[in-house]
Each structure stands twice: as C-alpha cells, then as structure tokens.
Design brief:
Blueprint: E1 14-22, E2 25-32, E3 37-41, E4 45-46, E5 49-50, H1 51-62, H2 67-77, H3 84-120, E6 124-132, E7 141-148, E8 153-161, H4 171-185, E9 190-194, H5 199-208, E10 213-215, H6 218-223, E11 228-231, E12 240-243, H7 253-265, H8 295-304
Helix pairs in contact: 1-3, 1-7, 3-7
The structure holds zinc ion.
C-alpha cells in the first residue's frame, strides 16, 4: 500500500484507500486531500471479468489438476483465487466449450491425415485399451481409447456408463465397439487392431470385424522404446541404466488459454447463461429399483449390525 500514499495527479497526500478483491483480482481505490479519486486493478479485465480468474481456472483444468487441490495450495500460501461456484461457472461457460471445439478440430485433422494415408498406402494400424474408474466388477465408467501406432496419436475414445451395458465387465467391449464403429463410419480403413487378450474383445473382433486383423501384442506397442543413460550413482557405487526423462510434448495449452480469452471477448457468450454452455448428454436414470432410504434410518441400520 506504499504506492498509494501520494496522489498521482497532484502529488498531495492520499487520505483514503479502500481494497476490494474479486477472486484473484485486487482493486485499490484512493482519494487525495484535493478530492482526486482513482482506482488501480492488479490485472486486466475482459468485459468485467478479471483475466486472472479466467486464467487460474483455465490453468487448473488444462494441467489436469482439480479445484480442491489448487484451492488448498492457494489458501496455504494466502493467494486469492475464485470461489468454487465461480470456478465451475467459468469451466462450463468458457473452458469446456473451448476444449470441445479444439478437440473436435484436432481429431478431424488426425482422421483426415489417416484417410490420406489410407489412399497412399494401406489401412491404419491401431491399438486400444480400456480403463475403468475402479478395478474389478464394481466399476461405473469405462473409457476405451484407440491410438494410431505410426504417429502415436490417440484418434478416438469412448466413455460408457455401467447402465448402458449389461454389467461393468461388459462396458469395455461396448466402448471398444463404439470406437471402431465411429472410426469406420468416419471413412477410415483399418487393417490391424492391437488389444489385450480380453475374451469379449476377441469375440467382438471375430464376429463384427472379421476383415480387420487382430493382434495381441499390446505391451510392445504401449511401452514404446524408452531411451536410457548408463550412470554411476554415488550411493550404490554401481553402474546402472536409468531411463531418460522425456518432458511433456503437449504444446496446445497456450493456444487453449488464448482461445479462452477470445471466448470471453465474444459478446454473444453470456457468463452463467445455460445456452452458452456445452450440453452434457443426459445420463441414464438411476439403477436403484427402490426409492432412496432416509439417511438417519440407513445409519441406524448400519450401526445396529455392530451392536448384536
Ligand atoms: Zn490529488
């Protein structure tokens, strides 16, 4: 606040300063003895929203962090960031729509390149694997991703919820089939698909895609060929091979941040207006067959099991 002791217009003493904070924006307003007034902002605004609020939310999402982690970190350091509700409103009005458009553009380009490769040479060689939100038979979501073996680009992924399949184990073949159908429907010619030895996927390949060659060599494809250095650590005094750290090759984050700022400048996009947000597909209804039990009664029932 030392900066606000003298009036920038007449050089006289400032008699009154007030501080306001809006998320990560700090605003100081002042008044001098000659009646001059003014205010200063700690960052620029775009259409009334502090750029730092947009950028904090964008950097959190685009680095794969969650609001809770960042809020905890910021609170410990006493750094001001937007409130949770503002964060999520920014996410749905600005960040997700930008990611959505960018992802589709990028995917369209990847598929275009692969179709061109189809014309020049043969069909694509893809490999895929599924990942569930929790292991075993209790998973609720499964994503299946397909990668182009030549360029190592993920060309498509599908997300399946357990209610869309007959069981949690049936999610993987369902998601796999949606992936392959999407790629075939987009005009791609596929020669080889490499997966793990999951029996349901082997069956799907045999029955639904007999023309595509099926390989099982997934570790070979996924692990790639890491580069090594041979080093002599002080503590062990033995020569050992150590994997060379490969920094992230993601180079689209800055472009995404620029696009977020552009979307904020767009006067047709109204913050917190549902029409400016991406429509999330309607999820299938709850699988519970009975109405939800009263919480107190449920706790009572739970506790009584231990008191017998
Ligand atoms: Zn003054």
């Amino acid at each position: 606040m030392q900066l606000f002791t003298r009036c920038p217009q007449c050089g006289q003493t400032v008699i009154d300063t007030k501080k306001f904070s809006f998320g990560s924006l700090l605003r100081v307003s002042w008044k001098c003895i000659n009646g001059h007034e003014g205010s200063w902002n700690s960052c620029n605004e775009t259409r009334g929203m502090a750029d730092n609020n947009l950028l904090v939310a964008a950097s959190t999402l685009f680095t794969g962090a969650t609001y809770v982690d960042i809020a905890d970190w910021a609170a410990c350091l006493n750094v001001q960031i937007p409130q949770k509700t503002t964060f999520y409103a920014i996410q749905s009005s600005y960040l997700i729509p930008v990611v959505d458009v960018f992802y589709k553009e990028q995917q369209a380009k990847l598929l275009e390149d692969l179709r061109l490769q189809n014309v020049l040479q043969e069909g694509a060689n893809l490999s895929g694997d599924g990942r569930s939100d929790s292991p075993g038979f209790s998973a609720k979501y499964c994503t299946y991703s397909m990668m182009d073996d030549v360029n190592k680009n993920v060309v498509h992924f599908e997300l399946v919820q357990v209610t869309e399949a007959t069981s949690s184990v049936a999610m993987e073949p369902e998601a796999f089939k949606r992936c392959v159908d999407f790629l075939l429907d987009s005009g791609l010619k596929i020669d080889v698909i490499t997966t793990d030895r999951s029996p349901s996927i082997r069956k799907t390949m045999r029955v639904d895609y007999p023309r595509i060659q099926h390989e099982f060599d997934i570790w070979h494809v996924v692990k790639g060929f890491p580069r090594y250095n041979v080093v002599f650590p002080k503590h062990s005094k033995e020569w050992v091979a150590r994997k060379i750290y490969e920094p992230t090759t993601q180079n689209f984050r800055e472009e995404l941040l620029v696009k977020v700022m552009e979307r904020r400048s767009d006067t047709t996009v109204v913050f917190k207006d549902p029409t400016s947000q991406v429509v999330v597909p309607e999820l299938p209804p709850n699988i519970a067959t009975k109405p939800k039990m009263n919480k107190a009664a449920a706790i009572e029932k739970h506790v009584s099991r231990f008191q017998k």
